Amino acid sequence: MPEARSKFLEKIIPEASKAGRRRYTTCGPGEQAFSLRTDYKTGRKKRSIAWSHFSDYEWEDLGDRERLTVIFGDRILTIEGYKLDVLIREIDAGKLKTFEELTTPEVQTLLNDPDEDAVVTSVDIYPSVAEIVREIKGENDDHGKHTRSLNR
After folding, report:
1. pLDDT of residue 5
2. Which helix (H) or strand (E) holds 88?
């Protein structure tokens, strides 16, 4: 699948000036974020996790990139990229609302930019929504297709 954003989406949601804009959003003074949303680089997928399930995070320097692993109850958010300390500061303050996974050309542009902006190269959230739906519906259960309790 190509890394470029959808041309159709670019037409209906113009992003004329990407230069100089932050790739994440935060709450204003005295506010706290309700959920954390990630926008995937294709522009065709978004995913959100409630901050009320937040329990812990771990930042790692992997040499050629950084990894930030965030635990939300029984979900794991893994963010890889550069300058992730920008996101960590907003997480610590309870203010991070959204962030974007970037395409390769956007990453190259931001890495050469001296501004302090997080550069997110990949995002993974486990389990996927499809896995959660299958588990709730009991589709992996041979005894019927009834909603059941989750065994996590």
Report:
1. 57
2. helix 85-92
Nearest to 83 by CA among 40, 125, 47, 114: 114
46-50 and 24-26 beta bridge pairing = unpaired
C-alpha 108/C-alpha 100 separation (Å) is 15
Q: What is the DSSP string of 10-78?
A: HHHS-----TT--SEEE--TT---SEEEEE-TTSS-EEEEEGGGEEEEEEEE-SSSEEEEEEETTEEEE
pTM of structure: 0.74
Cα–Cα distance for residue pair 84/60, rounded to 1 Å: 10
Segments making up each domain of the chain, as ranges: 24-126
CB 75 within 8 A of CB 53: yes
**Nearest by Cα to 75 from 125, 23, 149:** 125
Alpha-carbon gap, residue 115 to 118, rounded angstroms? 9
**Can you list the residues of the chain whose pLDDT is less than 50?**
1, 14-20
